[in-house]
Amino acid sequence: MSWTLTAADLPDLARGATLLGTGGGGDPYIGRLLVASALGNGGGITMLDPDDPDDVADDALVIPTAMMGAPTIMLEKISHGREPILALRTLEDRLGEKAQATMPIECGGINSMMPLFTAAMAGLPCVDADGMGRAFPELQMETFYVYGVSSCPMSIAASDGSTIVIDTGMDAHQMEWISRGVTIRLGGASHIADYPMRGSEVKRTAIPRTISLGLRLGRCIRVAREQHRNPFEALRQELRETLYTYGVELFRGKVADVARRTEGGFVRGDVTLRGFDNDDVCEISFQNENLICRVNGTTRALVPDLISVLDVDTGEPITTEGLKFGQRVVVFAISTPASMRSPQALEIFGPQAFGLTEEFIPVEQRNPDTIPSPA
Amino acid sequence: MSWTLTAADLPDLARGATLLGTGGGGDPYIGRLLVASALGNGGGITMLDPDDPDDVADDALVIPTAMMGAPTIMLEKISHGREPILALRTLEDRLGEKAQATMPIECGGINSMMPLFTAAMAGLPCVDADGMGRAFPELQMETFYVYGVSSCPMSIAASDGSTIVIDTGMDAHQMEWISRGVTIRLGGASHIADYPMRGSEVKRTAIPRTISLGLRLGRCIRVAREQHRNPFEALRQELRETLYTYGVELFRGKVADVARRTEGGFVRGDVTLRGFDNDDVCEISFQNENLICRVNGTTRALVPDLISVLDVDTGEPITTEGLKFGQRVVVFAISTPASMRSPQALEIFGPQAFGLTEEFIPVEQRNPDTIPSPA
Q: Where does the S-Me-THD N-terminal domain lie (chains A, B) (predicted)?
């Protein structure tokens, strides 16, 4: 059943989307301000349940919208508000058909917010689902692509009003390669519309209700904090009732070092943490998003499972840009839904897709002791 | 009046287009083979005179087609023949209208040939005119742009069948910037269609009859050689009857050094020549095309005037890629038509547009002694 997202939901959603952003995805804060401004003094955005045929008809045209670029640059190069609609309209013109809804391609980070902004500006509903179930750095890293939806044609809109339409047929890697080159030339961030699809394809390939999930997890952290409960334990319990199922605390300690560099249109780097009162060392490597977490040399969690860093006291998730020397944090991992762990899915966004040599083993199997026994 | 270009014209046209390519533009040889193959055992391409209303109606849609990239890479990354038509069709689809003719954007180098190939494959006529009157390295360096024709929308076709449509409005510099980024991602060379325009705009902004000019200059060199006449003197006389007017021999000597590097999608570098029996030194700097020629430290010719290097014995023009240590050559300059020397034209493709500090002074004024007195 459809539901209405209002401005009051945005702080919780931003918090949850930062958690699902796994360090990257771009801070949702800027996107949140854009959505709040588009909603003005009232009203809301109609959110469609992908599994409800009354919400999403099989033949409805759904056009996802998003921001593309290095998260560090997305924060610095703020949209003036016109580009998301321009990207949508440009793709509609190419297709010769109007979209009946927009949708996130990515529920983590700023791209949880950008389709809400597009929806509010265009007067469209937004499907409560996405194609990453978290944040990923590249456009082919979508369950849409894994399960056969064409990523093209795709459109890019720039802050100067320029538009680019790319059609690489079924080759989403080539689309990523070319659009990344364009985005670099546009200063490192751009607005896009891609993977135009029918309602039947949404149902078949999207991770369902991930905006709801972000809202729920963000609210869970806030409520636990307000009630002086342990936010990590609260998150773990909340996740048990979702497709994501397992939450695992991997490490507690202080940020000892953060190295990041912008290259090839991505932010890459490493974070080193040290235990509070011991010699334990935790290392996290990232390409926009956190990819792998090792504790004392042992791999504890690996992409596509989610690896997030949160403030040890408040449970507030922290993006890679927000990490600073001396911060006291918890590293928290979340298991991904089954459709993101299939052999075809792991080929597109498993460890090897990021140049890692470690085999993907689900986080709950790598950390069996931390899984609570069923109640 | 229209005329028919046949396969028999191609060797002379290739020679003349290499001369007009001023070292760059890409060797027309590959393009010549493509055109010859498209023409097969007979037939020809109808060449339209831009100033004849029976050839080019004011409201006719003309879509120029070309290759884009670093000349060195264009030679190595040969078209499989499908891309030029794909670029044309992609732009027609975007415009919702079929082209009535194609046209070169550049009469020097391989782009003298690519629109002929497109014309032969699509069964279209080709306008005998262009927007550079020579070769230039960047897409905004067009009399079309100087005199107000929009460069957009423009299309790019890749060898894998991918297409890209770029619309930067009237901003041809931004179109160049984005399309260059795309071309780099496509391996350094691509096929494009840009500056779609009406017949009335062709008449107002194009340099007329520049394919005829290339053919005429190429034939002039060959005939002089066959008749054991001095090809440089023959060229000088031939030019007197064209819009280009002045041919100037700047230097005779041997190639002492060639330094070239591919950067930012361009080939940049310098050539040093030494006199045969003296200490004279000639230095030429290029960005794809030759930009400036200094003899013993004195500037003798400067972009947009043409600077070409030819074999001292045969008069055969040599591209920058073809230059080798020890070659015995003549450096020959040609004055450009008046419409390429206006203040607005010099702003777009004069010395300052290439980062040079020297003021543009026409080659015939820099070298008054070499201009023959009127007969």
A: 9-167
